[in-house]
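Running this now, will post back.
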Amino acid sequence: MSTFVDLLRVSLGGLLARKVRTVLLLLGPMIGVAAIIAAVGLTDSAKGDLKRKVTELGTNLVLVSAQSSVGRQNPTLPKDAADRASKVITVEKVAAIAQLANIVVTPYERAKSQFETVPIPVVAVDDQLPNVLEVPLISGRWINAFDESATTRAAVIGIGLAREFNYLPGEMRTIELNGIRYGVVGILDKVELEPAFDNAVFIAFRAAEQDFVDNDIQPNKVYIRCKNGTETETAIALKTAVNLGGPQEVQTEIKAAALELAAQSDRQLQLIVVSMGLLAVIVGGLGIANVMSISVIQRSAEIGIRRALGHSRAIIGAQFMLESLVVGFLGGVMGVLLGIGAIFTGVKISGWVFVLASWLPPAGIVLAMLISVLAGVYPSTRAARLEPLETLRLG
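Update: finished.
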């Protein structure tokens, strides 16, 4: 048995002769590699979906909001905050909103008891919000200048609320806000950067002042589209432009940066799971070393016969080392396949973009083989040092 092919045949025969033991040996590297592949792949897929969303939504959306401070409830911005923001030379589009409080939203009077405990946002808006957010309407129209000037009771609802209330696109329906009926004139599509808008009701400022507020409404948020590449300097300039030395405290936020921060959280989770995967691979390696050490004792008669027939220590050691290598290779391949399957499942459930780095599968296989080889050094050395007479004592 001087050729590599013969040695490989004997090694495979040794593994196949003890199927249960071989399966147990495969579990360590398989689970570890699968965990690493799935963790990295799912995080990269989430980031790929994030990049797709940022590309679609744009990175140049800036939010100006009133900042809470001690002793102030429901902080607001100046009434002309949108006009002030539009004066900044890097600003292209502006839309102001005011979030209203203590309004019970129901699809109709008989459902009031069912929905009065559910907090549904009601937002006073101008006619520019969908244009600034770059979000289309599924059906109908947005609040327009006529609604503002004529104080019409027109409302637009988010897609989530439309589904909850069973509204159909184009259907003539009303919605009740504190018992006052508003006609639903449109349904806004999903807003990725502001998920709360998906379940909100949007009405005109004048209608909100007429029905729910005794005086003029002041906005508490202003959405701004600025020139690409000027997000940071625009955010800084807006703090001064909107406040203009007034008592209101103003804060700014670049919405795409918030998504990037979420991606960093995903990266931290990835590192944790990868570390757990590495630990599983190492524990699997220890299992390989332990089981193969026992195998050396169980197969001492086989080793003794082969040594008596003239097989060298190098051949005996190489056989056990090759068995470890085969276990690592098979465990790595199975782990890669299991990890890719986990990525496919996660992507399908979450609706992400499938992303798998080309280097990841071969790296997982190489890692499993490396750990298995290191784990096989001691059993291989022990088997190679056995003398024919010593095997009689062991076996």
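The two ends are 23 Å apart (CA to CA). More later if anyone needs it.
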